[in-house]
Specification:
Elements: E1 19-25, H1 31-40, E2 49-56, H2 62-72, E3 77-82, H3 89-98, E4 103-106, E5 112-113, H4 117-128, E6 132-135, E7 137-140, E8 173-175, H5 176-181, H6 195-205, E9 209-212, E10 218-221, H7 229-232, H8 235-252, H9 257-273, H10 284-301, H11 304-307, H12 312-323, H13 326-339, E11 344-347, E12 350-353, H14 367-370, E13 383-392, E14 396-404, H15 410-413, E15 419-422, E16 425-426, E17 428-431, E18 439-445, H16 446-452, E19 458-467, E20 473-477, E21 490-494, E22 497-505, E23 511-517, H17 520-528
Parallel strand pairs: 1-2, 1-4, 2-3, 6-9, 7-10
Antiparallel strand pairs: 4-8, 5-10, 6-8, 11-12, 13-14, 14-18, 15-16, 15-19, 17-18, 19-20, 19-23, 21-22, 22-23
Helix pairs in contact: 6-8, 8-9, 8-10, 10-12
């Protein structure tokens, strides 16, 4: 049944569902089949749920697949077809207009749910009176998902004092009465990021937001062809998205801790992403566009409470955008991406990161841009100078990292030993006897990484942590300059499946360890690749 004009009710029309599941669809085969199967297999039962899927002009057979499911599950699966709108906002809004029941849940058409997800979410919302419920999200095919907010189950969390601002995707259960009372809808003129204004306003207006960390509720799939709207978005669209998100937060939330927490998220991720290492790959006009856009955003909305809690690298690059030229930005980013961590200048009790442009003759960049005295994460800014495998016959293979710090007085500042973490796992770190000191060697067991990874694969960031002089821990991601030669993946079994384990970097040059389950096609691709990405 193709339900472009669906009828009201559910099954026999006698009882509305507990939850309407919204699925915006655009060219997601073959992942769409797994998504729909995971919904129809939910333990909550099809009598308590309804699926509204909106085909946004698909050309790969997704629309026909939806129609097949609608014919097989009349009254449960409702399908609407529309011309392509350019993003998920319009399909979500159209589905929201048709939603019934007490709750609504959004699912990406290439993702899937754990079998008990909806039942657990609805039960928790009823028990705690929650307007929004987040269930733990895990990555599939080595997709990275921020996990801070899922550290523990929490009945009541707030934007101001939790990791909730780091999890503003729409993959949550929302009380429909809240959605309709405030007429929450997606901005249809945002091709990317349109779910965040909806989610942010829902969390801001909710009487209670609950986090559930006791189950893998949502499996976020990384497409192997990486062809989704976020990956393919242009720099101009990403700049517009960042500007819209920052301005929406400022217009929605009064000044104070809650607004500061949300703006820290947007400057740390959406704005900082405009100045990541891929900035070097852009042409001159695009660099100038992003430079001007970041400078304007920072000048209008980057207050001292927000700036002071940003990571040192982010704060520094934004500062260069504010005071310098696009070429100044290129010089600073190239230092991180290609040359490594710059020296630290100590003068008058202050510390400065001596990037290109620091005290340059042109005088454009004030010393304050480079001041890292109070940036506890700068102490942990070690550079990866070597990377390879230690194939110990007894202990099994391990990833070995050689690390270097430019801080000459680090031993005096931080007498306690550093800690290296790979997600929630700990590596073994020892000082080396290299000339000049300030060098470490870290070892991470492949068996431990594989054992702790989800069967669907996982990607974990690598961080180094050092205690600052005042006792605060300073944590920074490890960077691997592009000049570094990466080793090929190692292939190891776990149960009946084989996995590729490899060091990779993200768009900002930050080191991660990737675990990907193997298929014959992936094996061939991995064996022919020089450096995984």
């Amino acid at each position: 049944m193709v339900a472009d004009q669906p009828t009201a009710g559910h099954r026999d029309g006698s009882r509305p569902p507990d939850v309407t599941v919204v699925v915006p669809v655009y060219n997601t085969m073959p992942y769409l089949t797994g998504c729909l199967d995971s919904l129809l297999a939910q333990s909550i039962g099809t009598d308590r749920m309804r699926i509204v899927a909106v085909d946004d002009g698909s050309t790969d057979g997704s629309g026909r697949q939806l129609d097949r499911y609608a014919r097989r599950h009349p009254g449960t699966v409702t399908v609407l077809h529309q011309p392509n709108s350019g993003g998920p906002a319009a399909p979500c809004n159209r589905a929201l207009d048709l939603a019934t029941g007490r709750y609504v849940f959004f699912v990406g058409a290439d993702d899937r749910l754990g079998p008990e997800a909806l039942e657990r979410l609805v039960t928790a919302a009823d028990r705690y009176g929650s307007d929004v419920v987040l269930g733990r999200v895990v990555g599939v095919n080595s997709r990275y998902v921020h996990q801070e907010v899922f550290a523990r189950t929490a009945v009541d969390v707030r934007l101001a004092d939790s990791a909730l601002p780091l999890s503003l995707a729409n993959t949550k259960l929302f009380r429909r009465e809240l959605v309709e009372r405030h007429r929450l809808r997606y901005p249809e003129d945002m091709p990317i990021g349109s779910d965040q204004p909806f989610t942010l306003e829902a969390c801001h207006r909710a009487a209670r937001v609950t986090v559930l960390a006791d189950y893998d509720y949502y499996h976020a799939v990384r497409r192997l062809n990486a062809r989704n709207i976020t990956y393919l978005s242009r720099a101009e669209e990403r700049l517009d998205c960042a500007r819209r998100l920052v301005e929406f937060a400022v217009g929605l939330i009064p000044p104070g801790e809650e607004r500061d927490a949300v703006l820290r998220r947007y400057f740390r991720f959406e704005v900082a992403a405009l100045l990541d290492d891929d900035f070097l790959r852009l042409d001159g006009p695009t660099r100038r566009l992003l430079h001007a856009g970041v400078r304007e955003l920072a000048g209008r909305h980057l207050t001292a409470p927000v700036r002071d809690k940003l990571p040192a690298e982010t704060r520094l690059r934004i500062g260069v955008a504010e005071h310098g030229t696009p070429d100044d930005l290129v010089d600073v980013i190239r230092q991180d991406a290609e040359r490594g961590v710059p020296p630290t200048v100590v003068e008058g009790g202050r510390r400065y990161a001596a990037y290109p442009g620091f005290r340059a003759s042109h005088g454009r960049l004030p010393d304050g841009v480079f001041d890292v005295t109070d940036a506890v994460d700068w102490l942990a800014r070690f550079e990866v100078t070597g990377i390879g495998w230690d194939r110990d016959a007894d202990a099994g293979p391990a990833l070995v990292l050689d690390l270097r710090t430019p801080l000459r007085d680090l031993d005096r500042l931080c007498p306690d030993p550093p800690r290296l973490t790979v997600g929630e796992l700990a590596g073994v770190v020892r000082p080396t006897t290299a000339a000049g000191g300030g060098t470490l060697r870290a070892r991470i067991s492949v068996a431990e990484v594989l054992r702790a990874s989800a069967v669907t694969g996982q990607r974990r960031p690598v961080h180094l942590t050092l205690p600052a002089p005042d006792g605060r821990p300073g944590t920074a991601p490890l960077r691997a300059p592009r000049r570094l030669r990466f080793p090929r993946p190692v292939f190891r079994p776990r149960g009946r499946r084989w996995y590729a384990v490899s060091p990779v970097t993200d768009g900002s040059g930050r080191l991660m360890i990737s675990v990907v389950p193997l298929t014959p096609r992936r094996v061939l691709a991995r064996l022919t690749a020089r450096r995984p990405s």
